[in-house]
């Protein structure tokens, strides 16, 4: 009887061990399958993200896709404190280099872009890859214009065209023709009105595009919320300097300044050059003391 009980206990223990071993084997065999499934899920997610990016560029930044109004966001969008905009893969919108009106106050109102001299019929091209958000006509403003939202988060506006040659929701590549130069809308001569905006915030195109040299200023632009008032402050300060008004030095001093990194530049050198602490430089540019400075990078210095 005792032997029979011992035999029963031994068989039960052996069965438990077998089950445990079998379970471990099953889990071991299942692990590669789980990894493959996760890999498949990741690839599917990446494909989905790319598909959504193609349909609505910068979809993770913008709250909507609106074909009715240029400035469609207002208080409905959350603007980040800083955001680095990739400028590689660009194309200059026109081969003309003469700027006839800068970004800033003009005729008692804000001029939110650059006016570049072009002639009626000149080809105007998309600055970056993106999707056409608007193709409209505004008699007392932009005239015939095109708005493109780009993969890098920017929106560009091309105004006073004589003809638009793209359609709303059409995807375009950098350099694709989108319209012809003209003199439509509120315009006193043929030119291209070119605006760059991020989540509705105006950015002076000269911070990114060097029209005289037909190039970009650097490979990327660090958008800092509130810093783009520079377009107004700087213009006002320079006007005061040119006119010799009292307080011009103070106005110039209060204007936001930028520095393009050159070979040999360090945060310490830039700090001494612009009389600003290294900690302040890091704070307003969203960088650290240990950040590697790249040649061509643009830093805000005040």
From TrEMBL:
| SMART domains xref list | LysM
One Pfam family this chain carries? Answer: Peptidase_M23
Q: What are the record keywords, sorted?
A: Signal
Per the UniProt entry, the signal peptide is 1-23
Question: Is Transmembrane found in the keyword set?
Answer: no
Q: Where is the LysM domain?
A: 257-301
Looking up InterPro entries in the UniProt record yields:
Cell_wall_metabolism_enzyme, Dup_hybrid_motif, LysM, LysM_dom_sf, M23ase_b-sheet_dom
The entry lists its GO molecular-function terms as: metalloendopeptidase activity
Q: Gene3D superfamilies under this entry?
A: Glucose Permease (Domain IIA), LysM domain
CDD domains assigned to the protein according to its UniProt record, in alphabetical order = LysM, M23_peptidase
PANTHER family, per the entry: MUREIN HYDROLASE ACTIVATOR ENVC, PEPTIDASE-RELATED
Please identify the protein, giving its name as recorded: LysM peptidoglycan-binding domain-containing protein
Organism of provenance:
Phocaeicola plebeius
Question: Which lineage is the organism of this entry classified under, starting from the top rank?
Answer: Bacteria, Pseudomonadati, Bacteroidota, Bacteroidia, Bacteroidales
